[in-house]
Design a protein that fits this description.
By secondary structure, the protein is an alpha+beta fold. Helices cover 22% and strands 37% of the residues. It binds adenosine-5'-triphosphate.
Length: 343
């Protein structure tokens, strides 16, 4: 059996009678990185803070590395949970040097200094040990905050939107470096984010939350290609949605008769969800006849909007790599690759 770093069962929390977490339950194996993804106000931070011991849930249980830290008759304080916490910003003690900040949670022994240097190297900040926090950029402060959280080798690292206070340019590099540091130290981590790109580029498992509930927990590819419901589908990427009628293993829609994922639904009338990259554009005779309505070039890719079929409302936005090879008014043939998803 895989060793679990975290096991949460039926966790609920309300503030002033309003449910903020409702029966949240999931397990996280050791060494994995989980992203909790969801819109603002869905309860992500409350979940993270409950795991950390900064909030007390109303019911349910939390186990960290097989040890109950919260339950019906159990409440272990934050310091005793073996967690490292990286907040959005301002985590460092302003009056302590970088080295003193990293050493803060370490036992006073001869190995202390070595561990500080090891952590500085891990986050790419060698030579910064004597600096004060105000002498660091926002991104450097977050690196040191991670180094401090990782130094005592905690069972779980919790990161609460760690890049939200940083410029977009800085974020991509820092994301990569933080992912590297977490992997290299074999840490188990949970990051809260409302940014789907951040969740997909960093995490091995994604938990999608909505209105205090855990809607789906799976690997990123699974969440993207087989979202649990339409809401998750549109939250994690672009979609083309069409009306369809199920006929056995296929679904009839304005883009033809297509195969779908999963078991046959109970109803015939469904919504068909197709990802923009599933389309190919070719000659008119090789697909469903469509007319290009608009093209928008973004550099790395282009958006091509087109009408198809008899119905004026049948409309699809498709992404293609690089510059569009078609222009407004062109007649083309549209094909869909792979299975579609139906709801
Ligand atoms: P964001 O991405 O905006 O930080 P979130 O998904 O992390 O949102 P939470 O911060 O967990 O959401 O908040 C969930 C809900 O609980 C919100 O409606 C919020 O107003 C409410 N809430 C959070 N903390 C408290 C509190 N201490 N007292 C009262 N209500 C709170």
């Amino acid at each position: 059996m895989t060793a679990l770093a975290l096991s949460i069962k039926n966790l609920s929390k309300s503030f002033d009678g309003v449910n903020v977490l409702e029966n949240v339950a999931f397990d996280l194996p050791k060494g994995k990185m989980l992203a909790i993804l969801g819109p603002s106000g869905c309860g992500k931070t409350t979940l993270l803070r409950s795991i950390a011991g900064f909030e007390t849930p109303n019911s349910g249980s939390i186990e960290i590395s097989g040890k109950e830290v919260f339950g019906e008759r159990k409440y272990l304080s934050s310091e005793k949970r073996r967690i490292g916490y990286v907040p959005q910003e301002g985590a460092l003690f302003p009056h302590l040097t970088v080295a003193q900040n990293i050493a803060f949670g370490l036992p006073r022994n001869s190995k202390r200094n070595d561990r500080v240097l090891e952590m500085l190297e891990l986050v790419g900040m060698e030579g910064f040990e004597k600096r004060m926090p105000h002498e660091l950029s926002g991104g450097q402060q977050q690196r040191i905050a991670l180094a401090r959280a990782l130094a005592p080798d905690p069972a779980l690292i919790l990161l609460d939107e760690p890049f939200s206070a940083l410029d977009t340019g800085l974020r991509a590099k820092l994301r990569e470096d933080i992912k590297y540091a977490l992997e290299k130290s074999n840490a188990t981590s949970i990051m809260v984010t409302h940014d789907q790109e951040e969740a997909f580029s960093m995490a091995e498992i994604i938990a999608v939350m909505r209105d205090g509930k855990l809607i789906q927990i799976a690997e990123p590819d699974d969440i993207y290609t087989n979202p649990k419901d339409l809401n998750v589908a549109t939250f994690v990427g672009e979609t083309v949605l069409l009306d369809g009628y199920v006929k056995g293993d296929y679904v009839d829609c304005p883009l033809g008769t297509l195969s779908y994922q999963g078991n046959s639904p109970e109803k015939d009338k469904v919504t068909v969800m197709i990802r923009p990259e599933q389309f190919t554009i070719g000659a008119v005779e090789n697909g469903i006849k469509a007319q290009v309505a608009k093209t928008t070039y973004f550099g790395h890719d282009s958006l091509i909007q087109m009408h198809f079929g008899q119905n004026e409302n049948s409309f699809a936005s498709i992404r293609v790599l690089g510059k569009p090879k078609v222009k407004k008014g062109d007649m083309v043939g549209l094909q869909v690759e792979g299975d579609v998803v139906i709801y």
